[in-house]
Recover the amino acids of this structure.
């Protein structure tokens, strides 16, 4: 039997130049597509920034930033009872009848904490909530659903704050002193007390590294109000030396309202006429709140930002509001313009909520719109926490995911 051998016709090799031309052609097409895509994005971004009508169209129909009260989760509340709304972590909490109920962004109650508080004074920082009975003695530090510690203070609580490490400062009245500032570590151990005989403490807070206590005080002994901001070394105070390591005396009639420690021990101080920052024992004015402009709101309840709102008339019965934000870390400014007059403002972390009555604009500190909420009724109040906002009415809370 003969073996049959088949011969396949060998294909001629393609020239290398042809292969290279085909590869270069594909590469050119890819490059052109990328360039066109980048160009389209650049044009869209420029139009989004500069063209108000185009920006509103994109926000509403493409980016889906506009929402109404018809498509949000709702928590019903009993408006006849003493109900307090507290934003904490990822929850909107309702405090009523000594019970702190925690609701998620879907309006579902996840957990609750029993505490003996009816009229709360509180502060939130990260995973910690410090809460006390205003004008009374009861004080708690809470993390999640756990009560870390509780105690009764000597006197009446008027203000409480907590830093991100769980260190607590309290302002106490109703003693033989005008004010007493008591501090506690994250285990509830009292660290020291500072006694004010001639001035009234307005606010107090502990730095993020637990090294300093800053407090604001006012004196009304003279014919004018005198505000001071003092800083105490926590280490020296623990060794019975509560003398300030720094003392800033504000201009006369400049009323201190609140203070807040930011990163790197920057202490931001909000007065009725300006916002200042104390860094490395140097006071610097960041914003003026009493210029020729009509400034309606100004605050520091953000992370490394301060802001003010400037109202500008656009007609006999109309006005716009410019939100001016200042980054205390890199000294950069950003702005956001709103058609209308701000009736109230809430802020948290990098979000500012501007209540226009039946509409709320949620913007970030870069000056961009995050969400726009429209309601069919007048908005009573707003609270913000991690990724959630609560729109408060008389009988319900509407929840918005940010």
């Amino acid at each position: 039997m003969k073996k049959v051998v088949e011969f396949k016709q060998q294909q001629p090799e393609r020239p290398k130049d042809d292969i290279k031309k085909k590869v270069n052609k594909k590469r050119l097409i890819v490059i052109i597509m990328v360039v066109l895509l980048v160009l389209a994005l650049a044009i869209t971004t420029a139009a989004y920034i500069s063209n108000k009508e185009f920006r509103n169209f994109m926000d509403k129909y493409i980016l889906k930033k506009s929402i109404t009260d018809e498509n949000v989760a709702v928590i019903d509340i009993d408006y006849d009872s003493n109900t307090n709304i507290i934003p904490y972590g990822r929850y909107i909490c309702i405090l009523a009848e000594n019970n702190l109920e925690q609701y998620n962004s879907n309006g579902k109650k996840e957990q609750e904490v029993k505490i003996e508080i009816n009229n709360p004074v509180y502060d939130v920082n990260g995973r910690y909530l410090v809460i006390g009975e205003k004008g009374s003695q009861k004080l708690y530090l809470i993390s999640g659903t756990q009560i870390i510690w509780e105690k009764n203070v000597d006197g009446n609580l008027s203000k409480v704050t907590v830093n991100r490490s769980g260190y607590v400062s309290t302002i106490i009245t109703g003693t033989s002193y005008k004010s007493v500032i008591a501090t506690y570590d994250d285990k509830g151990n009292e660290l020291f007390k500072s006694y004010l005989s001639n001035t009234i403490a307005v606010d107090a807070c502990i730095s993020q590294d637990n090294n300093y206590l800053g407090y604001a005080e006012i004196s009304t002994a003279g014919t004018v109000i005198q505000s001071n901001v003092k800083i105490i070394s926590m280490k020296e105070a623990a060794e019975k030396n509560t003398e300030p390591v720094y003392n800033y005396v504000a201009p006369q009639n400049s009323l201190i309202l609140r203070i807040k420690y930011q990163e790197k021990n920057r202490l931001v101080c909000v007065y009725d006429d300006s916002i200042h920052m104390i860094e490395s024992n140097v006071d610097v004015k960041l914003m003026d709140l009493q210029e020729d402009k009509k400034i309606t709101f100004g605050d520091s309840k953000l992370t490394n930002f301060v802001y003010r709102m400037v109202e500008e008339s656009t007609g006999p019965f109309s006005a716009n509001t410019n939100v001016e934000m200042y980054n205390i870390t890199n000294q950069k400014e950003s702005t956001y313009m709103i058609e209308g007059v701000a009736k109230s403002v809430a802020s948290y972390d990098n979000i500012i909520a501007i209540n226009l009555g039946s509409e709320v604009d949620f913007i970030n500190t870069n000056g961009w719109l995050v969400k726009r909420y429209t309601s069919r009724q007048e908005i009573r109040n707003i609270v913000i926490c991690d990724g959630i906002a609560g729109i408060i009415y008389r009988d319900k809370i509407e929840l918005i995911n940010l």
Notes: The radius of gyration is 29 Å. Residues 16-50 form the longest helix (35 residues). The first strand starts at residue 66 and ends at 68.
